[in-house]
Design a protein that fits this description.
Blueprint lengths: L2 E2 L7 E6 L3 E7 L5 E8 L5 H19 L1 E2 L3 E5 L2 E2 L6 E2 L11 H9 L3 E5 H12 L7 E7 L3 E7 L2 E3 L37 H5 L1 H10 L8 H9 L3 H25 L3 E5 L8 H9 L11 E4 L6 H7 L10
Parallel strand pairs: 1-5, 2-6, 6-9, 10-13, 13-14
Antiparallel strand pairs: 2-3, 3-4, 7-8, 10-11, 11-12
Helix pairs in contact: 1-2, 3-9, 6-7, 7-8
């Protein structure tokens, strides 16, 4: 006989809805993953995506002999406060859809939804690299640039649902001598955003524009820099300087205790020494106590943070 969630322990389910995969995980009250499953995302088929999530959640619950567990989902994009529908998702079939309501109907319970970068930040603030910190800014540095804010272990969404979207701000204190004015054109039609400079493809394009050669990706640039290539080293230094200026603007506004980096570019080890050295010039303080750290849970932070959208002791009504 299946046990209803209210009769069990603090188990919760997280869903990481990505463009290529759907991951579903079961967390216990201590943050340990008790079950974890992955399936390919039915590309471009919204109805199939909803059904796939419901099937995976049901399978995890059946394995535990439970029903009605809290479910949180991390998604690309966000829910519009104006329409209640998805917006800004690079999984285009989600845009304009009432994803939260449709998942709730498919699962027969209330489902909480947050942006995937918000879920990342929440995971690291709850029991990751920033555990115990009062204010955390979580950053994803990859093919794009995302962010999330957690205060007192609670996700800050904001009245517009865009808290943490720092990548769409202009690169602060631009350097004309580095070609930063007006800067590259972003997908939104605007020039010189933090994302266009600080994402992985942005670093590669900057390397090529500076005459550094046809590097295929960030890994190649890092390997060339480690081997002593002067052009690759200069590219990394420019990228670190831009990242430092961008994060300094966040520190000047939010003054977080910890900034956590995730995504592919978070694995560049020198960042954690070089960026704090560089941001001192731009932070409006005589000392900078904010810590810059690498994510503890890595790729698992998305699904973990989705599960943490339900606090301990709370069950869906």
């Amino acid at each position: 006989m299946a046990i209803h969630a209210s009769e069990g322990s603090d188990l919760r389910i997280g869903v990481d809805l990505g463009g290529t995969k759907i991951e579903v995980a079961l967390l216990d009250g201590q943050g340990a993953i008790r079950d974890r499953r992955r399936e390919p995302t039915p590309a471009g088929d919204y109805g199939a995506i909803v059904r796939q999530v419901a099937t995976m959640v049901s399978a995890i619950e059946a394995a535990q002999g439970r029903t009605g567990l809290p479910v949180g989902a991390g998604t690309p994009g966000a829910v519009s406060r104006l329409t209640g529908r998805m917006k800004n998702s690079n999984s285009l079939c989600l845009n304009g859809r009432t994803l939260r309501e449709d998942l709730s109907a498919a699962l027969g319970r209330d489902v909480r939804i947050a942006n995937d970068a918000d879920c990342f930040a929440l995971s690291e603030a709850m029991d990751g690299a920033a555990a115990g910190a009062a204010c955390v800014f979580g950053v994803i540095l990859g093919t794009g640039v995302g962010g999330g804010v957690v205060v007192g272990q609670k996700l800050l969404a904001g009245p517009n649902g865009i808290a943490g979207e720092w990548g769409h701000n202009p690169l602060p204190w631009p350097r004309p001598e580095w070609g930063e004015v007006p800067g590259p054109k972003g997908w939104d039609g605007r020039y010189g955003s933090i994302e266009t400079w600080c994402c992985g493809p942005g670093m590669v394009l900057d390397h090529q524009r500076a005459g550094g050669g046809e590097a295929r990706d960030v890994q190649a640039i890092c390997q060339q820099a480690a081997a002593g290539d002067a052009a690759a080293q200069a590219t990394l230094e420019r990228w670190e300087d831009r990242l430092a200026r961008s994060l300094a603007s966040i520190i000047n506004v939010l003054d977080p205790d910890v900034i956590v980096l995730g995504g592919g570019l978070s694995h560049i080890a020198r960042v954690y020494e070089q960026v704090p050295l560089r941001w001192r010039e731009w932070v409006f303080s005589d000392a900078v106590e904010t810590r810059l750290v690498r994510a503890e849970h890595g790729d698992a932070s998305g699904v973990r943070g989705a599960a943490w959208l339900w606090p301990l002791g709370r069950t869906p009504g």
